[in-house]
Amino acid sequence: MSDRLAEYRRATAPLPAKSRLWPLYGAGFDNLGQDGHLIEVALPQPGPDELLVRHDACGLCFSDIKVIKQGQEHTRIFKDMKTDPVVLGHEVSMTVVQVGQNLRDQYKVGQRFIIQADIYKNGVNYAYGYMIQGGLSEYGIIDQRVLNGDHGNYLLPVKPDTGYAESALTEPWACVIAAYELTYRTALKAGGTIWVIGCAGEQRSYQTSAGFDAAHHPDRVILTDVPAAFATWIKERAHKLGVAVIERNGLPLAEYGTISQLAPDGVDDIVVLGADPEVVEAASPLLAMFGILCMMADRPMGRDVAVDVGRIHYHRWTYVGSTGTDIARAYSDLPVRSKLRPGGRALFVGAGGPMGRMHVQRATELADAPGTVVSSDISDLRLQDLADSFGVEAKARGVEFVTVNPMNKQAYAEAMARFDAPGFDDIVVLAPVAGVISEASTHLAPGGVMNVFAGVLRGTMAKIDLSRVYLDGIRVIGHTASSIDDLRLMLYQAENDLLAPNRSVAAIGSLEATRVGLKALEDAVYPGKVVIYPHIRDMPITAVPELKDKMPTVHARLKDGREWTVEAENEFLRMMLK
Fold first, then answer.
1. How far apart are the first and last CA of the chain?
2. Cα separation of 340 and 577, whole Å?
3. Do residues 20 and 44 make contact, with C-beta atoms less than 8 angstroms apart?
4. Which stretch of DSSP H or E encloses residue 411?
5. Which of 125, 179, 215, 261 could share a disulfide with 479, CB 3.0–4.6 Å?
6. What is the DSSP string of 211-256?
7. Rounded (5°) CA angle 487-488-493
8. Cα–Cα distance between 528 and 521 in angstroms, integer?
9. What sign has the CA pseudo-torsion 316, 480, 162, 138?
10. What are phi and psi of 462, to 5 degrees?
């Protein structure tokens, strides 16, 4: 290790008087920096209960692009960006360089950490890189919101020999891991609100064998046009349990929204008796966070249903159903599955981007991997890069690896026709486009699960054949962000060579190049992650394979001449640290 790199790791050198950063003053790239450039500010000074940290590496995320596009309207921003600008960067690794007086028994200069981006204090989300200055800066302050938040300490220690980019990218990787650890209720919500709606002409004899008894029951029931016998049973049972019952019979679809007056925080369970797509569309917007809409029907609806896939993603809504008449069994007989089916068929839609590559890498490396992994993207170059990166390894592990481009319509149709009998057990959608989500859903096998991973806006409506939920047992789920436990698990896997975040690195550059890197991210220039090293000399965004001519000694330490490694990073920093 050179003296320069060794000194950098020790973090004991005198600190500069200034820190450089990229402020975002509002929506649009015109508001990033000043006159298109980063700025210098006085080096922040930690208080007695704070740490000063050095940002060592920062991955650029499409969530950063969302903040640039939305500015003050972004849901995580609740400050005046013009006077208190946002400094982006939540995929970050850091080193302690100064310790406040009251923390010197707990922290030492040179300690390395990653950070859980969603930081809650007194129920408020002060996300790193949103409300708290993020990693697109040389230095930052870690205060008590981070060190003593609602979930404890949001810093996780990193081993000294773990790579900077490697540890920074555990954050997006944690989001990928979390997508396959989602859990959903398998019963009516105890203490919640249930709304039962009978469709016109529906007179089957319904019941619920569980979830409405002394041990487990909702606190409130709303009834709308429920068949008489079932309505009587509910009211009698509710009376015995002390459960409030409100009847809103004859309620026109246009007035379903008035139910929000009875349930301001939303309805936990909506049970639709019958196959009426208009009822499902009118009732669904009333679902609460983590709400479930249960469809009880024995015939198709007759048309696709407009589904708010944005709220499936962000609010964790889901739809269940049964062709039978026992509501409890609609929840419990086919629990919502989030893990990929071992030996099954998996389709990754929009797989060529940074997050898609992570999903594909994980799927092909699983001990109980799918038998077939199909990746779709509209870029042949990205698909070829996927095949070059993972195809040979997948084949060696007995996984069929296929790439398809929906822009090549005939070839795509032929490929999908092959797989549509019976379809895909798992579909992960990484393209935030309603039409793409709708088309993807048509390829689900019976019992298949579609995970809307892409961050589509709330209110994005995709047409999906929800009849298949109760006729074929399909499920549509969604996911956003990760917990500190997910991050801890990912860091453990990275530091024990179980998953390699470095394989996601596609391009690198200095802090000066951040603006160009973000533009490249928006324009999908690179197939993987762009990583910024805030403390290196000025360097343009450079694709990792291009290092062959520009930095041959770094390139020589890549894996297979294409993949970033800790050894390559060390050589790179020896050459480029300021």
1. 16
2. 42
3. no
4. helix 409-419
5. 179
6. SSBTTB--SEEEEES--HHHHHHHHHHHHHHT-EEEE-TT--GGGG
7. 95
8. 9
9. negative
10. -120, 140
- The two tokens of residue 447 are 């019992």
Exposed/middle/buried for 348, CB within 10 Å: 0-12, 13-18, 19+?
buried
* Tokens coding 481: 């962000």
The reply to whether 193-332 and 345-456 are identical in fold is: yes
Fold of 193-332: Rossmann fold (3.40.50)
User: From the first residue on, what is the mean pLDDT of each consecutive set of 10 residues in the chain (578 residues)?
Assistant: 84 96 98 97 98 98 95 93 97 98 98 96 96 98 97 97 97 94 95 97 92 95 97 96 96 96 96 97 97 97 95 94 97 95 98 95 96 96 95 95 96 92 95 93 97 89 97 93 91 94 97 98 94 98 96 96 96 96
Q: What is the pTM of this model?
A: 0.93
Distance CA 18, CA 191 (A): 55
Residue type, 411: A
CATH architecture entry for 3-179+491-536:
Alpha-Beta Complex (3.90)
Burial category of 424 from C-beta neighbours within 10 Å (exposed 0-12, middle 13-18, buried 19 and up): buried
pLDDT value, residue 270: 98
Amino acid 429 reads V
Q: pLDDT value at position 2?
A: 54
Distances in Å between the Cα of 115 and the Cα atoms of 142, 167, 168, 510 are: 10, 10, 9, 21
Enumerate the domain spans of the chain: 3-179+491-536, 193-332, 345-456
Pick the closest to residue 345 from 418, 439, 436 (CA basis). 418
- Helices 3-10 and 566-576 cross at an angle (nearest 10°) of 100
pLDDT of residue 456: 84
Cα–Cα distance measured from residue 453 to residue 439, given in angstroms and rounded to the nearest whole number: 15
Strand partners, 207: 326
Phi and psi at residue 37, to the nearest 5°:
-125, 160
Q: Determine the Cα–Cα distance for residues 30 and 260; give it in Å rounded to an integer.
A: 41
Tokens linked to 214: 């002394």
Per residue in 137-158, is it b (16+ CB within 10 Å) or e — as a string?
bbbbbbbebbbebeeebbbbeb
Q: Of 190, 124, 128, 136, which is closest to residue 156 (Cα–Cα)?
A: 128
Return the pLDDT at 4.
87
Measure the CA–CA gap between 446 and 370, rounded to whole angstroms. Answer: 16
Point out which residues pair with 30 in neighbouring strands: none
Give me 148's structure tokens: 């003593």
Distance separating alpha carbons of residues 340 and 427, to the nearest angstrom: 9
Cis peptide before 422 (omega within 30 of 0): yes
